[in-house]
Amino acid sequence: MSKRALVKYLSELKKKELEEQLIDLYHRFPAVKEYYDFVFNPKEDKLVQDAKIKISNEYFPLKRKRSKARRSVAQKYIKHFVKLGVDPHLTADLMLYNLEVAQSFSLEKNVPEAFYKSMGNSFNELVQFVSLNALLSDFKDRIVACYIFSQDHHWPNREDFSKSLDIID
Fold first, then answer.
1. Which superkingdom heads the taxonomic lineage of this protein's source (predicted)?
2. 3-state class of 107 per DSSP?
3. Closest among 13, 101, 2, 103 to 57, alpha carbons compared
């Protein structure tokens, strides 16, 4: 169904019928429920804190012995926050937190080449997001610290970090 057809259909419904459909959607689809819960009671700080705990647990687990170190966990939260419309400042903070935890992890563990590539992608996405949302002044120090870390610890893809920084210069 096209957007135009949907608008036409909705305009023909009576208010009571429209309310019933929204309530039905709210009960049937968790994404709709989550959206309305967020719109009317954002609790953005709690969402970010929960995401940080999950990301940290991915690299430094409390309940299991081995870390999984999956970038996809953080990416899932970041994508979800963007979709919900969470404050870009909080989303950028989460993106940086993910990089900082991963860099700490790399000091303690022997990580594969794919890990460095993945973190390079995360750094590039972070720089683009910060640039797009005009947040550079708030996060410049932390971004530069992540860049310097990659250089000082001779990450194999440190040139990718350098190229990513060219976006904001």
1. Bacteria
2. helix
3. 101
- Which tokens is 110 given? 């022997």
The pLDDT confidence band at residue 169, using thresholds 50, 70 and 90, is low
Q: Would you say 77 and 54 are in contact if contact means Cβ atoms under 8 Å apart?
A: yes
Tell me the pLDDT tens digit for each residue of 57-103: 999 998 888 888 888 999 999 999 999 889 999 999 999 999 999 99
Taking the C-alpha atoms of residue 80 and residue 138, their distance in angstroms, rounded to an integer, is: 22
Please check the confidence at residue 56 and state whether its pLDDT lies above 80: yes
User: How many residues does the structure list for the chain?
Assistant: 169
Other CB atoms within 10 Å distance of the CB of residue 10 = 11
- 135: DSSP letter: -
What is d(CA 16, CA 24) in angstroms, rounded to the nearest whole number? 12
Q: Tokens at residue 135, please? A: 């947040």
